[in-house]
Amino acid sequence: MDDLPLAVNLPEHDRDVPGKEAITTGNVLETMSVTKVAEEHDVVISAVGGGNGAAHQATIKPSAIALVEAMRALGDKAPRLISVGGAGSLKTTQGQQVWDAPDLPENLLQIMHAHGDALDYYRTVTDVDWTNISPAAHIAPGKRTGAYRSALDSLVTDESGNSSISTEDFAVAVIDEVERPQHNQRLFTVAH
């Protein structure tokens, strides 16, 4: 797999200067590559995904393993790890997992289960400071309101049973977790 952008470093004095971002590349599936990118940072946010279901299965859990191994290699200097997951493993109001809904396309099920496999792996990790955040069932570009509701293992829905969040508000939720950690070694989810 080609090197992928793994970090965007924004030095404090350049954060408000357009075009001053430094992009560091590496391979998220290779522990040493992740270690080099992660050292000297306080937080690593992983949002690995894209492509079809088979691509997710080939990258999501393997990248989780490489990320955890990189944090372990950094020892006491390891940054906190926040990983973006999927909504498939969340519980519905009926008590079943989202991926158990009837008539879901196979490609979508593969993506959901790839994120679920990574979450299952994270849940075995007790020596790394990790958090897994799942978006609502529907996430798409929209309006940034700065408002969202959260839950631990259950799908967050509105009064009509819809579960959605804008990508902008999802990003706010991720940054809120970076700045005010509340879900160490846990899954949580957010929605409007």
TrEMBL record:
One protein family per Pfam: NAD_binding_10
Domain NAD(P)-binding per the UniProt entry, residue ranges: 11-180
Protein name, entry field: NAD(P)H-binding protein
Lineage: Bacteria, Bacillati, Actinomycetota, Actinomycetes, Pseudonocardiales
